[in-house]
C-alpha cells in the first residue's frame, strides 16, 4: 500500500476501474460499505461495492485491495462473485450518507454531506476520517459555504433521517449511464429510493426506469402520484411504457393512460393491442420517417439525433404522407451507409432500398429473429396489409423480449 494516497475521497472513487494482479479490468467501483458504530468512533470501511461484467454487484473486502491511485483500484484478484447484499449493520456511503443533514459540534453550522474521506489507521484498517459538507445558500449566494471537518466534529451521521435529501446522490447518478444508475437505485433502501425518485427529473427517471427490473418499475410507479407517473410514462419509449403499463393493475393502467397526452397514449394503446411477443407488440412506433422529397442532408440531420439508439439510426423509413405511424404508403428504406456515400443535395428517394421484405405485425418473435438474422439487419419495418408503416423492430427490442422474464433482475442479482 506504499503508493496509496494518505486520504481518498469517496466521490472520486466511484466509477474507477478495478484491476486484478495481471492488469485485467474486473469491474468498477460503485460505492463504499462502512460499519458505523457511533458518532465517537470512526466508521470502519469494510469494502467496496463493485460492478463486474454482466451488471452483477459484488462485495470486495478492503483486505483484498492492494493499491488505490488517482485512476484505478488494484486487488489481489481473489474475489467472491456472489451478489452483494447489504446487512442491517452496514451503511452505503454514496447511497445513504450523501445528503445527510449534519451539524458541526459546538456551533450552529448545519449543512448536507457531499463527500467523505477515508484513511488507513495504524492497524491498517481503513476508516472514515473527514466529512465534506455544504451549507444552504444564503442571501445572493448561489451555493452555500463548504466545510471539510474531522469525523468527530460532526453530529447527525448516525441513526435514521426521515427527511434526507438527495441532491448529491442525484448528481452522482446523473454522471452514470442509465443502466448503471438503475443498478444503484435497485440497491438502495426503499425510503432512500423514493427520495431519489422524487428528486430525479422526469426524463432522467424515464431513462433509468427502462433499465430496471419489472418489479422495481411497478413499485416506483405505484408510489408516485398519478399526474407525475403519467408524465414519466410519456418520456419513456412507447414500447417500454406499454410493457410497464401492462404490468399494472387494470384500474391504475386506465387512470394513467387517461392522464397521458392523447398522442402518447394512443401509441401505447396501439402497442398494447397486439399479441405479446409479436412484431407489433415489440416494435418502436417512432422510427425516422421521411417523405420521398426529403434530401440526403435532411436524412442525415435526423439520424444524428443523440437520443436515437444506434439501431434506430441505421435506417430511414421513406413513406408518403402522412408521416406519423400508421403512415401513408411505405416506399422503402434508406441505409445509413448508403446515405453517407451520396451527395447531400440528392433526394432520399434516390437512395431507396425497396427490395427489403417487411414484417407483418402478427409475426412471431422467432420469425422476427430469423428475419433480422437472414438479412443481417439491426432493424426492420413493420407494415400492415394495406402497405402502411406501423413501426420498426430493432435488435435491442428483440433481445429485450427474447431474454428470460426478469433478466434485468438476474443481471443485478447473480
From TrEMBL:
Could you name the Gene Ontology cellular component terms for this entry?
membrane
GO MF annotation terms: magnesium ion transmembrane transporter activity
What InterPro entries does the entry give? CBS_dom, CBS_dom_sf, Mg_transptr_MgtE_intracell_dom, MgtE_N_sf, MgtE_transporter, PRC-brl_dom, PRC_barrel-like_sf, SH3_actinomycetes
A Pfam family (short name) is CBS
How far does the signal peptide extend, from start to end residue? Answer: none
Q: Which SMART domains match?
A: MgtE_N (SM00924)
The record ties this protein, via CDD domains, to:
CBS_pair_Mg_transporter (cd04606)
Which segments constitute the CBS domain? Answer: 352-410
* Keyword ATP-binding appears in the UniProt entry: no
PANTHER family linked: MAGNESIUM TRANSPORTER MGTE (PTHR43773)
Name the record gives this protein? CBS domain-containing protein
Amino acid at each position: 500500500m506504499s503508493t496509496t494516497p494518505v486520504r481518498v475521497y469517496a466521490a472520486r472513487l466511484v466509477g474507477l476501474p478495478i484491476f486484478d494482479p495481471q492488469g485485467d479490468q474486473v469491474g468498477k467501483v460503485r460505492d463504499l460499505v462502512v460499519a458505523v458504530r457511533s458518532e465517537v468512533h470512526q466508521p470502519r470501511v469494510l469494502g467496496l461495492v463493485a460492478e463486474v461484467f454482466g451488471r452483477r454487484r459484488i462485495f470486495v473486502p478492503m483486505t483484498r485491495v492492494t493499491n488505490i491511485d488517482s485512476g484505478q483500484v488494484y486487488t489481489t484478484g481473489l474475489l467472491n462473485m456472489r451478489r452483494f447484499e447489504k446487512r442491517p449493520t452496514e451503511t452505503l456511503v454514496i447511497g445513504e450518507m450523501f445528503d445527510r443533514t449534519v451539524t458541526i459540534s459546538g456551533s450552529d453550522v448545519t449543512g448536507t454531506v457531499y463527500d467523505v474521506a477515508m484513511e488507513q489507521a495504524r492497524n491498517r484498517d481503513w476508516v472514515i476520517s473527514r466529512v465534506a459538507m455544504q451549507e444552504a445558500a444564503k442571501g445572493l449566494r448561489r451555493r452555500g459555504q463548504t466545510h471539510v471537518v474531522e469525523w468527530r466534529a460532526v453530529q447527525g451521521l448516525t441513526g435514521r433521517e426521515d427527511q434526507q435529501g438527495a441532491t448529491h446522490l442525484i448528481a452522482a447518478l446523473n454522471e452514470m449511464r442509465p443502466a448503471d444508475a438503475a443498478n444503484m437505485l435497485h440497491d438502495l433502501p426503499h425510503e432512500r429510493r423514493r427520495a431519489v425518485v422524487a428528486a430525479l427529473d422526469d426524463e432522467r427517471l424515464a431513462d433509468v426506469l427502462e433499465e430496471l427490473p419489472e418489479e422495481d418499475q411497478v413499485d416506483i410507479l405505484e408510489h408516485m402520484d398519478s399526474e407525475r407517473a403519467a408524465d414519466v410514462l410519456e418520456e419513456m419509449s412507447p414500447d417500454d411504457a406499454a410493457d410497464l403499463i401492462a404490468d399494472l393493475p387494470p384500474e391504475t393502467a386506465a387512470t394513467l393512460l387517461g392522464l397521458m397526452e392523447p398522442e402518447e397514449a394512443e401509441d401505447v394503446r396501439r402497442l398494447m393491442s397486439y399479441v405479446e411477443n409479436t412484431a407489433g407488440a415489440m416494435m418502436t412506433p417512432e422510427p425516422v420517417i421521411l417523405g420521398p422529397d426529403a434530401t440526403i442532408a435532411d436524412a442525415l440531420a435526423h439520424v444524428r439525433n443523440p437520443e436515437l439508439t444506434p439501431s434506430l439510426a441505421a435506417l430511414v423509413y421513406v413513406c408518403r404522407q402522412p408521416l406519423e405511424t400508421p403512415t401513408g404508403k411505405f416506399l422503402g428504406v434508406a441505409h445509413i451507409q448508403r446515405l453517407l456515400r451520396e451527395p447531400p443535395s440528392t433526394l432520399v428517394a434516390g437512395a431507396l432500398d425497396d427490395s427489403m421484405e417487411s414484417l407483418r405485425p402478427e409475426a412471431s418473435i422467432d420469425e422476427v429473429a430469423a428475419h433480422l438474422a437472414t438479412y443481417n439487419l439491426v432493424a426492420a419495418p413493420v407494415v400492415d396489409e394495406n402497405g402502411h408503416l406501423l413501426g420498426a423492430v430493432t435488435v435491442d427490442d428483440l433481445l429485450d423480449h427474447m431474454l428470460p422474464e426478469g433478466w434485468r433482475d438476474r443481471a443485478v442479482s447473480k
